[in-house]
Here is the input.
Amino acid sequence: MMANNSIGYVGTYTKGDSKGIYTFTLDTETAKIMNVKAVANLDNPTYLTISQDNRYLYSVIKEGESGGVAVYSINGQTGELEPLNTQVLEGASPCHVSIDSENRTVVTANYHKGTIESYAVKEDGTVSPASSIIEHNGSGPNKERQEKPHAHYAGFTPDEKYVAAVDLGIDQLITYEVNNGTLQEVNSLSVKPGSGPRHLVFHPNGKFAYMMTELSSEVIVLTYNAEDGSFTELQYISSIPEEFNGNNQGSAIHISSDGRFVYAANRGHDSIAVFSVNQDSGELTFVEHTATEGSWPRDFVLDPTEKFLVASNQNSSNLVLFLRNASTGKLTLLQSDVPVPDPVCVKFLNV
Here is the structure.
């Protein structure tokens, strides 16, 4: 693999033309996405995560009437994937998957079932059957979308002592302690009723976290207490312009590794909102909106150099490449004609 090439992966919905997981190459010298190809055939690998050592890729998978996790080994030179194993449970497949940095535990969030699952990882990267399945309880004021729990995200806190789970259906952020691969609730925070929180990202300093809401299109700024895994609300800031009154659903949220900029995607407004971060208070200031040159940006990712940002437009089936200004956070369009069918999640190999 050339030094100026980064390998990326795209998780998709397979209800249309998609075959499963796709790979692509980002050439950082010519600033182009190239070599898009399918590398794994499976149903609805909508969300992916890659182990810190780049040896394994973990994907959500649908198998008939069941759903769970599929594990692949990664060829670091070519990006090719080799299937290793799957673990599934009855019912709908999860919508989110994470792994800790030591490759010990995989956690998934299941939107349809309102559950969080954990799986112990073996030495060879494969996953054991689910070691804990936690069911959330409750509902929210939005009758259509919050009739029951809808877990949308589960990921590790910076110290990896806890798993933080975001539930859109009950407007809650729930913290679980991880013990030998099993989960136990230690804390929970209820946020604004009807906001529908969806995804979470931590500031690199470990003191702040940023939660994207799907229903109210806001970023919730939180302080994080690593002692007990608790969160406190600091600020709510809209991800869409005040004058926009079309349908919008917030989607992904990511932060630059220097902690200076938070990016949040809007489906409907079809944009990425850029915010600058106050390093002392953690609070956000709006910088700009950038159009995603397509419909329904489901996810995006900063490349390993963080000079670029790649977004995935689910409904228009295209990837978009932006140049990122590290000092202003602003994005400049480079390429928008990269076809990938029904893309959901984008991830790069770690550097």
Q: What stands out?
A: The longest strand covers residues 32-41. The radius of gyration is 19 Å. Residues 197 and 213 are 4 Å apart (CA to CA).
